[in-house]
Every structure is written in structure tokens, then in C-alpha cells.
Design brief:
The complex is a heterodimer.
Chain A (H helix, E strand, L loop, with lengths): L1 H18 L8 E7 L4 H19 L8 E7 L4 H14 L4 E4 L3 H14 L2 E4 L15 E6 L1 H15 L4 E6 L2 H18 L5 E5 L7 H8 L5 E5 L2 H13 L7 E4 L7 H6 L7 E4 L8 H14 L6 H18 L10 H13 L20 H4 E3 L1 E9 L5 E9 L8
Parallel strand pairs in A: 1-2, 1-3, 3-4, 4-5, 5-11, 6-7, 6-8, 8-9
Antiparallel strand pairs in A: 10-12, 12-13
Helix pairs in contact in A: 2-11, 3-4, 5-6, 11-12
Chain B lengths: L1 H20 L3 H10 L2 H8 L3 H25 L7 H16 L15 H20 L1 H4 L2 H21 L16 E2 L2 E2 L3 H24 L1 H11 L1 H6 L4 H25 L12 H14 L4 H18 L3 E4 L2 E4 H16 L3 H26 L1
The chains are: A alpha/beta, B mainly alpha.
């Protein structure tokens, strides 16, 4: 009997201890779930936490501290959903930030919609995320539907219409590839010269490159995650395809591992992104210097800039709300935060263009940034360099027809 | 630890007493005891733990199913996660409305029709996965099943009609009339009931003539064959029964809100995690599989965000901990928790009997 009693007492004490992990009243609880498996992922995750700490150190939001919980979803949808559920139902967060990967953000949209928690998306570009009709989701990055249009216009006008495609199987790359093909066809009436659908972590592209070489194409689009893209770019030169055939990257071409791994093979590659490290604005220069000093990153990509912008947008929205911050006001607080984010208009930070949201649960209202910047690599390796080729703002309805 | 074993012993003894009155009585009582769990978890801890319990129930089904082919029949399979994927994707596309999202297939069937069909399809796939076992054993069979399992994932990843890279979304939850199984609690009753029935049937299989044939094959295939056991038939049957569990778990996973599937849910990492559950619990031990599934699900949830910095570079601890656990378990506790408890019980029984004998002599 004593055994049973002591076991029950231990369980009860453990339960109370666990229950007490739910944050205290008075804090604004923010949950973050992102892909933290890469070194870059760890660093921009840390940057977000540092920026939130800086807000707290300078007095918080209207006197209230932000209590952020950062979780790793490994870019896996089941883990992302589990994280979102944990943050919403256990940590009782007021708002959720996440995720990096589109395939994770997509199901989390349903979780936040059902629970009634505002979701700010830092990186995912898949157009379907905001097409689900959730009134709780807001996207900081540029949607894939805009990227495709910008890339296609530049390629068709400046390079040619005979394009070969290497499309990896991750959600963002598939989306980027399909958007580009669709827009080239729509704007210029040209069909793809060659399409290779490859695995997310494919390592051997040589047979595809040999076929592409024999086709005399004007350009090759490589839509893949960073390491895969770098390998494909290198192998395109190994196959003997000259520099006169332009290489077009998907949005992940902005990730630092691409120039670092691909080296000289990255020279001449261009892509669309939401931030250019070559941006000459003072805010961008300060940001670049800060990231280099604190996180050792030579030139931050748009994953860093979007994470930074997201914290600023969150700060701006939270400052404009009057939150109760106790358990009774949780639902009302979550709604107030959603409405405050929907009220953000023309936020100008590091992003390629102003970010605005509005109340309707439509892509027009929830894809905040419509401006993509075309970036070209001028030098590869550790100390890579880029240049801004163009900055294009797309019509709000673009890609929805 | 002794306290833990004593509690288990008391529960087992109580269960045996009840079973003497009626075979199903301990199961009914266990089921009733599990009914208030969501309310206890939500009031003492948080609603999230109900979600964790739901996932644990799905893993219990998977682990118990894997135990049939691996533990009872001794066949080394590493492709079980592929069967789980087949069950999940089949049920999802059968239940999705036609043209509901992009290129994905949809047949608009009721979830209650989709799940049994998915289980049947997975059982057929089980025959295919099991076919190499007729000619192969050990590491060769492991390699063959690994290839089949991974092929399933790759096929999903490259087929737009099966969700491809975007995944299958908006998979409907089960409904009864106007009642929708969409909350953590309502889904708990669905998966918990299935898990309890699954465990019960696993014991039934183990104690039946089929179970004894499985064990005979596990101990010595040639001896089993000489004794009149149709080895090919029983090996395939083990794979099929195991696939039924995997298909059911997969289908329930697909319809669990938010109703989303992605090929990344079925990688080799998930397979290794599943193997860890079975090895930790104890290969061939039904309760071991259950304990392993619960322990690993909780441990996974609690450790997945632990990071340490080595030379200023972040290192995620979990894969290292899980990998090391697997190696240490195989080295020092090859029969897992279930085997360890059995050994402890055996020793206690021996000591007790010896004491009684000594008392009688005195």
C-alpha cells in the first residue's frame, strides 16, 4: 500500500511541476517552430531569440516581457504539427511563428486555424499556404507565385525561352519549378525543353546534364535545396555545359551553402529572393555587419532577413494591442494579436519591398511582401559576392488566376 | 526499479485472477481504466499530452504489429514503415474528395470504408514485402525489406497524385452522423480502442497454433519444416498480419487532425525509431512492444529540442542518444524491458519456491 501511495504522490508532484511549466501570467508567450537541423537554421533561430531578448531588455512590450519558446521541427510535418500542438495547448502561447519549410507550415495552418492562434510564417513560400482561407495565417516572405513570375519575365526577356529544368522533390522547389514553367508558357508560349524530377537530396545529376548539353538550351533552372543545388551547378560544368548557358536558381539559391559548396560554379547564377546582401541601404549594411559579427555569417540570406523582419513586425503589432495576459483573456488576446498583425501596413525593413497585411483571409491580404529582388552571384566560395539585377513588385492578384 | 517491477507484478497477478473468471474481463477493466485518461491529462497537465497519448497509441499498434513478424516469427524486416505509409496514403486518397487539392487523387469515400480498404491494400503489400523472406534471411532480408520500404516513400515523393512534395492535405477525420472525431479527446477514444484490440489480438495470435508455428520458425526453420509446418505460408502470414497492424495505424494517422501526410513522415529515421521501440520493449514480448512505444514516444518528445554546442557549432543530441541507446540495449539488455521484467519475475519465483521448499524441510 505504501508503494502505491508513494507512487501516486510522485505522480502528483510531477504533474504539478509539469503543469507549472505553463508560463506565468503577464508574459506574452510566443512559440517558434523552425527547421533547426542546419547550422544556418540554428543561427537564425538564435538570432530571433536574441532579438526578442533585446526587446525584453529594453522594457518589453508595453511593460510586458515576451517569453519565447523555440522548437525544432526538422522540416518534418508530423514534428511541426506536434510542436504547434505543444506550444498552443501546453505552453498556451499567444501567437505562433513557423515554419521554415512549406511542407511543415501547410499542416500547421490547420492547427492554428482550429485553435484560433495567429501564425506568422518566416520562410515558407508555397503559394497554397495562404490559399487555405485561414484567417489566422500571415506570410512575411514573398510567395512562390510572385517568384515564378519575376524569374520568367527576366529569363524570357534577357536569356531565351528554351529552358531545361532540374526540379527537386521538396515542396518549395516543386512550387518554384512549376511556377516558372507555368509563367514561361503563359508569358512566352514556350514549353520546357527538358524536365528532370529528382530526389530532395539527389547527388548525381550527370546523366541529366549530358542530355541537357546535347539540347543546346538557353538556360537551366535548378530548383532544389541548397546542398543539392550546389552539387547540380558543379556537375553542370563538369558535363561541359558552358557559362553561356545561364543557370537559374530557385529561391534557396540565396542560402550561403550554395556559393560555399559550388565555388566558381555559382558565378553567373541568378535567382529571386526577398533580400539581397548586396543591398546598399544603411539598414541592410548594419544588418549584414551585425549578423557577421554575432553569428559569423559572411553575407546573410533572406532566411536571416525574414526572421529579423518577422520579429520587428511582431513587435510592431504587439505594441498596438492591449492584452489582458491572464488565463481568462487568452482567447481574446490571441484574437487581438491576429487583428493587430492584420493591421500592419507598409512595414519597411530589410525585405525587398514593403510588407502589408489586411483582415480578409485571402492570399491578397496574407501574402505580405509582393516585391522580389533578382540577385546574381558575381563570385563564389566562402567570401562570395552578389549583385542586384532588378527589383520587381508584382500585381497583388498575380498567380491567382 | 524494484518498486516498478513489484507494481507490474501486482497488476499481472490481478489480471491473471480476473482472467480465470473470464478471458476478456481484464481487458474490459483495462479499457475502462483508460477511459478517463484524457480528462486526467488535461486537468493535471495539458491537453497536448492527449495528443501525445494518441501518437503513442499509433506507435503501439505499429510496434505490436512489427513484433509479430520480428519477435514471434524471427524475420528481420526493416520495411515496416513503408507499409505504414501505404496504409496512410491509401486511406487518405480514398477519403479525399475528387479534385480537392491540385493533382492529388480523391475518391470521396467514407472514412469508415476507406480505412478497411487501406488495411486490405496494406495486407496485400505485406505479401510483397514478405516474399523475399521465402529465400532470404538475416541481413539479406533486412536489406531487401529496407529497399521495398524506401521505394514506397520515394514513389510517394515523386507522384503528384499521391501528394508528392506538397503532401496530402485536408484529409477528412472520421465522423459518426454529425459527430466528428476532430478533437484530441475524441480521437483518443478511437486510437486507444484500436490499440487495446490490437494488443488483445496479438496475444491471441501468440497463444494460437499459428503463434506456435511462428515461434517454431523463429527458433529453427528447418526443424519447423521437418515437423510439418508450412514455413512459406506462415512466414507470409506473419508479414500479412504485421501489415494489417501497420495499415490500420497508417490509416488512423492519416485521418488524425489536421489530416496531413508528407513522404518525410516515412523515412528511415522513423523506421529506426520504430525498431528502437521494439528492441527497448523486448523483441517477441507483446507488453514489451507496448512499453517500448510509450517510453520512446515520450522520450522522443522530451529530448528532441536538446542541443549542445561543440566548438561553437550546435549539435542536436537526440539522434546521438537514440543511436547510442540502440547499441547499448543490444549489448547489455538484448531482451529489452519486457525480457528484463520476465527475468526478474523468474528469479523471484525461484527464490520464493526455494524458500517454501526450505520451510517445508524445516
Amino acid at each position: 500500500m505504501n508503494i502505491m501511495k508513494s507512487t501516486f504522490a510522485s505522480l502528483l508532484v510531477g504533474g504539478v511541476a509539469l503543469a507549472s511549466t505553463a508560463a506565468f501570467a503577464g508574459d506574452i508567450r510566443v512559440g517558434i517552430t523552425m527547421r533547426m537541423v542546419s547550422e544556418n537554421g540554428q543561427k537564425y533561430g538564435q538570432m530571433m531569440m536574441d532579438e526578442i531578448k533585446a526587446i525584453n531588455d529594453s522594457g518589453g512590450i508595453n511593460g510586458n516581457m515576451i517569453k519565447a519558446t523555440l522548437m525544432n521541427d526538422e522540416c518534418k510535418s508530423d514534428k511541426g504539427v506536434a510542436n504547434a500542438n505543444k506550444l498552443i495547448f501546453q505552453e498556451k502561447v499567444h501567437m505562433l511563428i513557423g515554419s521554415t519549410c512549406s511542407s511543415v507550415s501547410l499542416p500547421i495552418v490547420d492547427v492554428t486555424a482550429k485553435a484560433g492562434v495567429a501564425q506568422l510564417i518566416p520562410h515558407s513560400t508555397n503559394a497554397k499556404i495562404t490559399q487555405k482561407g485561414s484567417e489566422w495565417v500571415f506570410r512575411v516572405p514573398v510567395s512562390g507565385r510572385y517568384y515564378g513570375g519575376v524569374n520568367a519575365k527576366y529569363v524570357g526577356d534577357n536569356i531565351g525561352k528554351k529552358i531545361a529544368y532540374i526540379c527537386a522533390a521538396d515542396a518549395a522547389s516543386v512550387n518554384d519549378c512549376a511556377a516558372m514553367q507555368g509563367q514561361i508558357k503563359k508569358q512566352f508560349g514556350a514549353e520546357p525543353a527538358y524536365i528532370a524530377n529528382v530526389q530532395e537530396k539527389e547527388v548525381d545529376f550527370r546523366s541529366h546534364m549530358q542530355k541537357i548539353k546535347s539540347m543546346n538550351v538557353d538556360g537551366i533552372m535548378v530548383a532544389a535545396l541548397a546542398e543539392t543545388m550546389a552539387r547540380a551547378l558543379m556537375q553542370s560544368y563538369e558535363a561541359g555545359i558552358g557559362a553561356d548557358v545561364r543557370r537559374i536558381g530557385s529561391s534557396s539559391a540565396s542560402n550561403a551553402p550554395v556559393p560555399r559548396i559550388a565555388g566558381d560554379a555559382v558565378k553567373g547564377v541568378f535567382f529571386t529572393a526577398a533580400y539581397a546582401a548586396a543591398d546598399q541601404r544603411p539598414i541592410a549594411k548594419l544588418f549584414n555587419a551585425m549578423v557577421k559579427e554575432k553569428y559569423g555569417i559572411h553575407a546573410p540570406d533572406h532566411d536571416f532577413s525574414q526572421a529579423y523582419d518577422l520579429v520587428r513586425i511582431m513587435e510592431q503589432a504587439l505594441k498596438s494591442t492591449d492584452l489582458g495576459l491572464d488565463s481568462a483573456s487568452l482567447k481574446a488576446d490571441r484574437t487581438a494579436i491576429r487583428d493587430a498583425i492584420a493591421g500592419v501596413k507598409n512595414y519597411e525593413g530589410l525585405a525587398s519591398g514593403p510588407i502589408s497585411f489586411c483582415a480578409a483571409p485571402t492570399p491578397q491580404c496574407r501574402d505580405g511582401n509582393r516585391t522580389a529582388v533578382l540577385i546574381g552571384y558575381t563570385k563564389g566560395g566562402e567570401n562570395f559576392e552578389t549583385e542586384v539585377l532588378a527589383r520587381v513588385t508584382m500585381p497583388i492578384e498575380f498567380g491567382l488566376e | 526499479m524494484n518498486v516498478f517491477v513489484l507494481i507490474i507484478e501486482k497488476i499481472v497477478a490481478f489480471g491473471e485472477t480476473l482472467a480465470r473468471k473470464h478471458r476478456l474481463l481484464p481487458w474490459v477493466l483495462a479499457y475502462i481504466a483508460l477511459l478517463p485518461l484524457p480528462y486526467i491529462l488535461a486537468s493535471l497537465f495539458s491537453e497536448y499530452l492527449i495528443n501525445l497519448a494518441n501518437r503513442a497509441c499509433l506507435f503501439i499498434l505499429l510496434a505490436v504489429g512489427l513484433n509479430i513478424v520480428k519477435g514471434f516469427c524471427g524475420q528481420v524486416t526493416v520495411g515496416h514503415i513503408g507499409l505504414y505509409a501505404i496504409g496512410a496514403v491509401t486511406s487518405a486518397i480514398l477519403a479525399l474528395e475528387p479534385g480537392s487539392f491540385g493533382d492529388t487523387w480523391g475518391f470521396g469515400l467514407s472514412v469508415w470504408v476507406a480505412i478497411p480498404i487501406a488495411v486490405l491494400v496494406t495486407a496485400l503489400a505485406g505479401v510483397i514485402v514478405g516474399l523475399p523472406s521465402v529465400r532470404l534471411e538475416g541481413a539479406y532480408l533486412a536489406l531487401a525489406t529496407l529497399g521495398l520500404g524506401e521505394s514506397v516513400r520515394i514513389m510517394i515523393a515523386v507522384t503528384p497524385q499521391l501528394g508528392s512534395s506538397t503532401g496530402l492535405m485536408m484529409i477528412p477525420p472520421p465522423t459518426i452522423g454529425s459527430f466528428v472525431f476532430e478533437s484530441f479527446t475524441s480521437y483518443y477514444y478511437l486510437v486507444m480502442t484500436t490499440a487495446v484490440i490490437g494488443i488483445y489480438f496479438s496475444f491471441s495470435i501468440l497463444r494460437s497454433a499459428t503463434g506456435r508455428a511462428f515461434q517454431a520458425i523463429r527458433e529453427d526453420t528447418i526443424a519447423a519444416s521437418v515437423n510439418g509446418i508450412n514455413v512459406v505460408k506462415y512466414k507470409l502470414l506473419a508479414f500479412v498480419l504485421s501489415a494489417v497492424y501497420a495499415g490500420l495505424a497508417g490509416a488512423l494517422f492519416a485521418h488524425m487532425p489536421p489530416g496531413y501526410l508528407h513522404h518525410n513522415n516515412f523515412t528511415i529515421i522513423e523506421m529506426v525509431t520504430l525498431l528502437l521501440m521494439v528492441v527497448l520493449g523486448g523483441i517477441g514480448n507483446v507488453w514489451g512492444g507496448v512499453i517500448g512505444a510509450i517510453v520512446v514516444t515520450i522520450a522522443y518528445d522530451q529530448t528532441k529540442d536538446l542541443v549542445f554546442y561543440f566548438m561553437d557549432r550546435p549539435i542536436i543530441i537526440q539522434p546521438i542518444v537514440f543511436g547510442l541507446s540502440m547499441v547499448l540495449l543490444v549489448l547489455f539488455m538484448p531482451r529489452g524491458i519486457g525480457g528484463w521484467i520476465e527475468g526478474f519475475q523468474r528469479n523471484r519465483r525461484f527464490i520464493k519456491q526455494s524458500e517454501e521448499r526450505l520451510d517445508g524441510t524445516a
